[in-house]
Amino acid sequence: MSCSKEKAILLHGMLDGQLDAMNAVQFEEHLKVCPLCAAEYERQKQMRAAIRASGVAHKAPESLRLRIAATIGPVGADAPSAPANASRTRQRSLRTSWWISGVSLALAASLALFIALPQSRYGALEEELVDSHVRSLLASHLTDVQSSDRHTVRPWFNGKVDVAPPAVDLADKGFPLIGGRLDYIDDRVVAALVYRRNGHVINVFVRPASETKDSEPRETSYRGYNLCQWRQKGTEFWAVTDASPSELKEFEQLYSAASAAEL
Amino acid sequence: MHVSNISRSTIGPADSMPANDEAMAGRFREAVMPHLDDAYNLARYLTRNPQDAEDVVQEAYLRAYKFFGTFKGSNARPWLLAIVRNCFYTWVKARPRSDTASLTDIDLDDVDIASVVSDLWTSDAIDPEKSLIKLDDAAAVRTVIERLPTQFRETLVLREMEDLSYQEIAEITAVPIGTVMSRLARARQLFKAAWMEHQDKERRS
Fold this sequence. Notes:
The complex is a heterodimer of chains A (263) and B (205). With 263 residues, chain A is of the alpha+beta class. Chain A folds into three domains: 5-52, no CATH class; 62-116; 124-262, MucB/RseB, C-terminal domain (Phosphorylase Kinase, domain 1, 2-Layer Sandwich). Chain A has eight helices and seven strands. In chain A, 38% of the residues are buried. Mean pLDDT of chain A is 79; it is low at 76-105 and 108-122. Chain B is mostly helical. Chain B folds into two domains: 4-94, Orthogonal Bundle (Rna Polymerase Sigma Factor, Chain: A); 101-204, Arc Repressor Mutant, subunit A. Chain B has helices spanning 4-7, 22-31, 36-47, 50-66, 76-94, 113-126, 137-146, 150-160, 166-173, 177-204. In chain B, α3 (36-47) crosses α4 and α8 packs across α10. Residues 1-20, 100-110 and 123-134 of chain B have low confidence and may be disordered. Chains A and B meet through α1, α3, α4, α5 and α6 of A and α2, α3, α4, α7 and α8 of B.
């Protein structure tokens, strides 16, 4: 306890470094002569250390970060997500500067893409796919079946959709399988497989193709999201993501190579 | 859940970024996204519940993005935290179940420390499984803070965890600096009393 209410206020101002020079000097003098305030000052320093200790402040869940990032729109390249488990007070400035430099790089990269790429065709289907992608992130309903096990995910779709989506696991290639869900595209129920690339989600929508002939992957972007469409053995695939076009390309190559055997 | 109608129904693909606003989205990402942990921390301590905290933060980010054009300052963090706090109070008012008693203005001199501290501990008697004694220190600190009355809790969190100045806290909570100072002194006094009691119990057990 401080010796008076007035001194208690000054004590906290001192603790917070919020006193002007004159009051700070005066209070320091007071601390030397008032054992009550001196003891309280030490005690409050301990309390502050307990409150500022790591594990007391909460960190945002990754799913929230992804949902919010999706409402702002994608970045053209990978922006690093904030490092987990760092002591916030010590790491804050470091983290911020790291993040910003990552974002600047991302912006620079996306700018380059806008210049380099011809304007893509905007179609109703693309819009639907992007909407579904965004909705999957927003509604905390990314997956109906959550599993990284392909032998769990693929059979789950049996009888629910008229394709058996190849739920290949690409975790060792940097694209872990998160799960699958049913979605509704073009007035039909389709299968959606969910993969992750660093902080980004890749939705792969799978439905029977209208043409049986295989097609080369076709990349587009819509509202800043990147899409890639291809046909393989009578099945049509649409991958949608806010990851960069080069990552999407890499994913498409890995996925179609691995899934060919399963179609 | 009762909260979903305040945030989720207002969010849809239509609310996401218009295609031509890439530059603004970039600025927002750079200025506001890095403060997500801070926003969540504040919301979590205000709502005292992870799911509600997510809803409040999501709503706050939507509002922040919507009004980002009017933000002129150099530091978006206090601005964002003010929005989080506003969203929290809107959310509280929209709730059907009302435990707003803890939100009404409390005359500082009316707060009897002994009774608040004893309130802080009575719930342990009811639910011994949740006794603070069994929690590790960080979890116990969290619990003690969560049990403080809202005005003290928010002032303490804004100061100790969000590291804001008295001036910034005064602006965010819309009270004079003098009130911030007395709330902070009171909050710390309450925290100290509860914390020391926690340590006593721990020593005895």
